[in-house]
Amino acid sequence: MKIITTPPPPPRKYLDILSGYFTKQVFGLLCLITFSCQEFEPIELAADLEKNDIHYIDIEKARIIATTIEFPLHTSEKQSQLKSTKVNFDVEIFGNKNVKESKSPLGKGDKALYHIINYEEGGFIIISADDRLVPVLAFSFDNEIPLSAEDDLPEGLIDWFSTQEEIIELIRDNPDAEINLEGVGSPSSSINLWDPCAIQRQVATENMSLTDPCDPGGGCEDQFTQVGPLMNTTWGESCGYNQFMPLIQCSPQLCSGRAYSGSTSVAYGQIMKYHSHPNFYNYNNMLPNTGTIETATMMSDILNAFPAQHRLITCFATHVSQEANFPIVLTNTFNYSSAQKGSFNSITVRNNLNQNRPVILFGTGAFGRMWVTDGYQRTVFCETGTTHLKLHMNWGWDGDGNGFFNFDNWSVTIDGITYSFNNNTFMIFNIIP
């Protein structure tokens, strides 16, 4: 765990450009930048929406934010710049990224809910289309989110998108809603999370500054903590992982004509690989991002450890029923000393991750999708005591969409009634070999 409280201000270039985003003159010039392969609202529609909704953030504004945020550069790019400048290799190099493609899913009234942006250099960012929420809903330094079709997305990520839609539509339907971060108070009451400096530190890394250069008078410093990501695996459910799954007739035909290994097998498997437990598998023969015979064997064993009446295999997915006793499979079949099931609790999740124990998350429904959280970023804003939390999600979909996501971070109060989110998420925690 690392807590960062001291650092240099973000680059002047970043502050100048992004601050300009708040003025129409500079914004008009920046909108002339063109990007390929992108889906967004027509300019006329975006202008009308902005006129009628002062909180609306259109795709052009989202692009400006996305291209002025500074990210740590990839290793090869970083080393070449360090060598050319003769800088010590311990120094982190940051830079801007270019937009590769974007997509803006629409909600009521054809208003964008959020903007998904993939970068040419790798990585993605998801920016809220309403400025009453934090700007950066999720991000990754390296991975992408498939934008071709919803079917290409892991179900856990689809659930997360549904929750964001629920939050955004709720506050748009209730203009007087009070939006609260975890902790005390409302972000809009005392701290502007859309300030250029605040946006930059929402994609902070352990080497980035949290001292606010927009406050020349100094003052208190925010606290930033990052744990993980703990796992190095990006496993999936299909080719290479399903070699010992049942044959199944589907159209189109699945890889090797066999069923998917299933999200439960992938989540359990990645946890078992991380702990190298139980000891009756050869974990050296399991690769980080490619399926092998040993990996496929373990995944098949995991599925078969659940009673037949709790397994469902179709052409679309392989599921385990919510009625199954998930912890007992780990403790009885795979010799773990501890595993517990409970409703999602962010404090419990953070405590587990602080002890280097990834946690399995899954949704409700007869056959809920499973995934693993193996890290988090948490910022405590010193002025208010409010907290901004992102969990690192490994969706079990060959690395697609893996990244840091807002989770259990908001509540909305309307007419004295408080609505919280992610209440329908469960977890398997205290997983100890």
UniProtKB/TrEMBL annotation:
| BP GO annotations | proteolysis
Q: Which UniProt keywords apply?
A: Hydrolase, Protease, Signal, Thiol protease
Pfam families, from UniProt? Answer: Inhibitor_I69, Peptidase_C10
Q: Name the InterPro entries for this protein.
A: Papain-like_cys_pep_sf, Peptidase_C10, Spi_Prtas-inh, Streptopain_sf
Please list every transmembrane segment annotated in the UniProt record, as residue ranges. none
Residue span(s) of domain Spi protease inhibitor: 73-166
- Record keywords: Protease included? yes
Q: What is this protein called?
A: Peptidase C10 family protein
Source organism: Cecembia lonarensis (strain CCUG 58316 / KCTC 22772 / LW9)
